[in-house]
UniProtKB/TrEMBL annotation:
SMART domains: SET. Coiled coil: none annotated. InterPro entries: SET_dom, SET_dom_sf, SET_domain_protein, TPR-like_helical_dom_sf, TPR_rpt. Keywords: TPR repeat. Pfam families: SET. This is SET domain-containing protein. Residues 137-273 form the SET domain. PANTHER family: SET DOMAIN-CONTAINING PROTEIN 5. It comes from the Eukaryota. TPR repeats lie at residues 9-42. The keyword Cytoplasm does not apply. It comes from Phanerochaete sordida.
Amino acid sequence: MDAHSTTEAESLKLKGNTLFGSKDYEGAAKCYSEAMCLQPTEPNYPLNRCFAYLKMKRWTEADQDATVVLRLDGANIKALYRRAIARKEQRDFRGARADLFAFIDAGGDVKVAIEENILIATAEANAVMRAVDTPSCGFRLAPSPGRGMGVFATRPFSRGDLVMIESPLYTAHGSGVEDLATAIDELSEEDFERMMQLYNCQDDDSHSPAFGIHFTNALGIDSDTSVLCLQISRINHSCDPNLSFAWHAESNTARMFALRPIAAGEELFHSYRRLITFTRAERHERLAPFGFVCACRTCALPYLERVVSDKRRMELSMSWKVDQRVPVSQPARHVEANAQLVRLLRTEGLASGSDTFTADSAVVCLHHGDWDSARYWTLETYRTRVEEFGADCYERTIHDFMRKLLCNPRGLPEAGKGKKLVFKTRL
Ligand SMILES: C[S@@+](CC[C@H](N)C(=O)[O-])C[C@H]1O[C@@H](n2cnc3c(N)ncnc32)[C@H](O)[C@@H]1O
């Protein structure tokens, strides 16, 4: 590049910036285009043009310009952020999320990423909600051999994609028969009829059919609250699920996220009663009232492999009870033990639940003033929760403590209170 074209390109950029400042985005984009012709390897010109395109809502061109920048400068945080916005607007929510995580990894402001991630999650929820009962809906209800009706993917999904979203037909507060009767009594005749179409695994004379249907299909939100959703109710159980269920209290919706890649045509499963860490015998005992014997991949393992699987799941189940883990008086061993449990989950093929262990490690590292390790484990936790519960899930992903842990960990009361340590463990 000769000095003349460099100067000319720079003055075009400055002219573009002035036009941008006066909101003439079209004129600004033209100047940046000319500068790009003179200096095609300079990332700032497509970066600026990308911004002008974002202002003009020309999302595809903005996306392309950000991609050009990232080809020249792979960790350009402004390009990652701008492309995330362009992708969100084009409904490439998966791509937008990936850009935001790359933005964080490249040193971008976590607070900014959290807020943008929430906007992406909201846009995705709206898009999935609008798609229900249209050809772009990603699932369909169909018979599932040996399991009655089931729900099947109609297109591929990746981990973290929102597959289903649904407002419940009713919410039952309290676990008594009267609480349930109150909720059902409030249904319109039409909704009651729709509810009565659902499967009833207690189809004997000992209960009112509505109670049997509630038992068969309702999802527990907490120990005292359950909801009934018409479409989600058709999802069958697996001890090796490909979906994670999350309740979004703010919008009163039940959501199902893909836990792993799902191919078009694959059946969708979630784990009833969060049974994944029980042994096969325990799972089958708890599933017996639903009137089926689970024959999922894990339940169908040959005897010796099943024994190993049971052992892993038992260990995980014990470890979720904090007091059973390596005591925090041995912090390095504690963090290593947590990492081992995450590895154990993966070996068992389970794609959920690691956040309990990573969040715990984040707090231990924070306590001992190892900011890099605390950041590493916090981001692991955040990423997992975004994928399994959604970026806008206040209860799991962005509650106050989590936000502080992500944005201002040193401001937390426990930060640096313990003996200064450096933790080597990583996944
Ligand atoms: C919430 S409903 C699921 C949808 C149901 N298959 C239907 O036809 O509407 C629960 C019932 O589905 C059946 N089911 C669920 N998971 C199953 C599985 N893994 N194997 C066999 N049956 C299953 C059982 O009859 C269970 O009581």
